[in-house]
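pasting for ref
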Amino acid sequence: MLQSSKTARAILLCVAVCLGVAGLARESARAQTLAQVSGQIRDPSGAAVNDAAVTVIHLESGVRRTTDSESDGRYAVSSLPAGEYKITVRRQGFRTVARLGVFLSPGDAVRLDFDLQIGGMQEFITIEGGRATINIEDASSDMRVEDQAASVFQSMGEHSKD
């Protein structure tokens, strides 16, 4: 009887460990099907912008996730399904910036920084296309679209005055 009790406990322990490992494997697999976007929000001088509202919209489903930037200007939104996104950043005293055509793949952990321009929130700067500026996983980088877009908008304004 004593031997069978030890055997039963050993079997229960083995089953519990197997279930725990299976649960971890399932969570790991789920995490690899989701993506994350993070970055920093700065003003024209390069200083961090806190309390900026960051809205991430999955265009296929319409699901919207929001967060606010921290005191150091950083933000992060995780557990995002793969797909195309629109990311909007708003802060009182700055123009609203919307980046369209952001594609996230399963397992992506990408960085998207935003450089805000002084102005009213009702003024929009829209940036179309563009992958994240830095892939956090391998530190590869793409060109910064914000600086180019700001230059284009400034030059368009100068030409319209002529």
